[in-house]
Amino acid sequence: AQTVTQSQPEMSVQEAETVTLSCTYDTSESNYYLFWYKQPPSRQMILVIRQEAYKQQNATENRFSVNFQKAAKSFSLKISDSQLGDTAMYFCAFASQGGSEKLVFGKGTKLTVNP
Amino acid sequence: DTAVSQTPKYLVTQMGNDKSIKCEQNLGHDTMYWYKQDSKKFLKIMFSYNNKELIINETVPNRFSPKSPDKAHLNLHINSLELGDSAVYFCASSQRDRGTGNTIYFGEGSWLTVV
After folding, report:
1. Maximum CA pair distance of chain A?
2. What are the pLDDT digits (tens) for B1-39?
3. A47: which chain B residues are within 8 Å (Cβ-Cβ)?
4. Are B31 and B48 in contact (CB under 8 A)?
5. How many domains does chain A have?
6. Which residues of chain A have a Cβ shorter than 8 Å from any chain B Cβ?
7. In sequence order, what are the residues at sequence separation of 6 or more whose Cβ sits closer than 8 angstroms to the Cβ of residue B53?
8. CB neighbours of residue B27 within 10 Å
């Protein structure tokens, strides 16, 4: 079974600075998808960024980018120019390509952006 | 134009009662899910339906019964509620083979409190 590990329960960063959230996963599959979801205090789950394992190029979405290291099974999220609105729980998630169609989540990292 | 909507958003009820949470998606997706987020914010899948057929049932007590009248709706009925059922329940949906890579879109969550 796949597992997702987020080793940083909490992190903080100053506004306008850059922060990196860590995620590692375990799988025997070669094709899969990885995601970062953001959950602000409102509790809504918001997709931040998505990466296909077969793509070597790291995904980027505006201020959000990932460092995907397939061999190391690592998928970190970098947030540049942090904003107060980035304060939230961030969840790393894994999904198989086809098959069971479910997301396996890490336990989350609580990020606080300080003014 | 909420993509995945669930009702009610908040629900407080007594132990032993039976309650339902409804979910509807207008994304045209063929797969819907129920996830549970516990008090420690850990997210775990409960059920998944593809074209109205149950494809995932993750060791959930029989008191939980999902029903999918059509592929745009997935309801969750809970019998004989227990204190441990208190959680946030998220409905979600996705579409296979649309190049979205199993991207799952979540509703806003239903906060269930059992007293």
Report:
1. 44
2. 669 999 999 999 999 999 999 999 999 998 999 999 998
3. 103, 105
4. yes
5. 1
6. 33, 35, 37, 39, 42-47, 50, 52, 89, 91, 95-98, 100-103, 105, 107-108
7. B68
8. 14
Question: What is the SS3 assignment for B34-67?
Answer: EEEECCCCCEEEEEEEECCEEEEECCCCCCEEEE
Query: Could you tell me if residue A52 is inside a domain?
Result: yes
In a domain, residue A115? The reply is no
* Contact of A97 with A51, CB cutoff 8 Å: no
Structural domain of B79? 4-114
How many other CB atoms are found less than 10 A from the CB of residue A69? Answer: 12
* Cis peptide leading into residue B8 (ω within 30°): yes
Residue-level pLDDT, tens digit, chain A, 115 residues: 789 999 999 999 999 999 999 999 999 988 889 999 999 998 899 999 999 898 889 999 999 999 999 999 999 999 999 999 999 999 999 988 765 567 899 999 999 999 9
Residue closest to B61 by CA, chosen among B36, B92, B39, B24 = B36
Q: Do A33 and B40 touch (CB under 8 A)?
A: no
The bridge status of strand B10-13 relative to strand A10-14 is: unpaired
Q: What is the CATH number of the domain that holds B39?
A: 2.60.40.10
Q: How far is CA A6 from the centre of its chain?
A: 9
Q: Within a domain: residue A104? A: yes
In a domain, A96, yes or no: yes
Number of domains in chain B: 1
